[in-house]
Design a protein that fits this description.
The protein is mostly beta strands and 326 residues long. Helix content is 4%, strand content 55%.
């Protein structure tokens, strides 16, 4: 009779009734799989009361038969390979082991890369499942909003990693892996998809995964002050300038320009928009052989996607120019 079943192991109770004390020879059991193949055959002792059957395939149907040779002393001689017991049983499917539960977090976030920490939650994952993990694949899928719904952005590449067997073994040992994903697009939301499989014997199946980090948004490229055609005299500073802000880190789309003298007094104040054409800036009536500081501020600035990276009056660039005759 069946006492206990698992995905690859079954424990059965054996009750041998032999009231006539017939001598049993070649006492054994034989196990046949659902396809008719004999998968195990081993000898038994009459004293055996429990049988643990290992190395079975999960989610399969088996027949066990108990055989013996014996002579009933009825003038028919010894009867060979007689079935004296038979029953059927099934092993549990791999899915009965539940979910692979992963702890995942962002360890480092930049414009074009992210470092992700990942480890197995051993308190919420069946230890038997951990031992038979075969593959783990992690995918970063770029998203775009369309009609109020987030869908895959087909114009950007999916980035993925397939863990090595060495990395999977590190996870089994309770370690947290740091995985770096490079060549990401700036200011892009990525949906994180983790696909895993487990394997027992010849049977490999996907296993459902749950994980804490579902998505990340890469940082915006920083705003950049671009200056060309700079010309300086004893009393004038002159140059062309534009503000490149391809991801909109300056939330007001403007930059404040301050010109200050050596005493830090404000002598010029103006504003210009981002991502516009080069504009000429000329500052006259300056003192000769003096150092002037030109500062470019974004009133509201954020390279991230939440308030944790927000900065007010963010200094994008500072340049110092000395007025001197040519």
């Amino acid at each position: 009779t069946l006492e206990e079943q698992d995905i690859t192991v079954v424990t059965m109770n054996i009750k041998l009734t032999n009231n006539d004390h017939v001598t049993l020879n070649n006492y054994k059991y034989q196990i046949t799989a659902s396809n008719g193949d004999v998968v195990q055959e081993n000898a038994l002792k009459e004293s055996d009361r429990k049988l643990e059957i290992k190395d079975l395939n999960p989610n399969d149907y088996y027949t066990i038969k108990i055989y013996a040779d014996f002579d009933l002393e009825d003038n028919k001689g010894e009867q060979k390979e007689q079935v004296i017991g038979e029953t059927t049983f099934t092993t549990l499917p791999l899915s009965s082991l539940g979910y692979l539960v992963l702890n995942s977090e962002t360890q480092e976030l930049a414009q074009n890369k992210v470092t992700m920490g990942i480890g197995i939650d051993e308190d919420r994952t069946d230890k038997r499942l951990i031992e038979i993990i075969e593959t783990i694949q992690i995918r970063f899928i770029p998203q775009i909003e369309e009609d109020g719904e987030e869908i895959e952005d087909k114009n950007k590449e999916i980035r993925e990693q397939i863990l090595t067997q060495e990395q999977i073994e590190q996870l089994r040992q309770g370690e947290t892996l740091s995985l770096e994903f490079n060549r990401l697009e700036s200011n892009t939301k990525y949906k994180i998809e983790i696909i895993a499989s487990i394997k027992q014997g010849e049977i490999e199946e996907k296993v459902e995964c749950t994980y804490t980090l579902q998505e990340i948004t890469t940082l915006k490229m920083p705003a950049e002050v671009q200056i060309r055609n700079q010309f300086v005299t004893g009393n004038m500073i002159d140059f062309d300038v534009r503000i490149e802000d391809i991801d909109g880190a300056s939330l007001t789309n403007t930059v404040r320009i301050e010109v200050r003298n050596e005493e830090n007094e404000l002598i010029e104040l103006e504003e210009m928009g981002t991502n516009e054409e080069y504009a000429r800036r000329t500052y006259n009536d300056l003192e000769e052989n003096k150092t002037y500081t030109i500062l470019f501020y974004a009133p509201q600035y954020n390279e991230g996607s939440d308030d944790s990276t927000y900065q007010a009056d963010y200094l994008i660039k500072e340049i110092k120019i000395v007025t001197e005759s040519g």
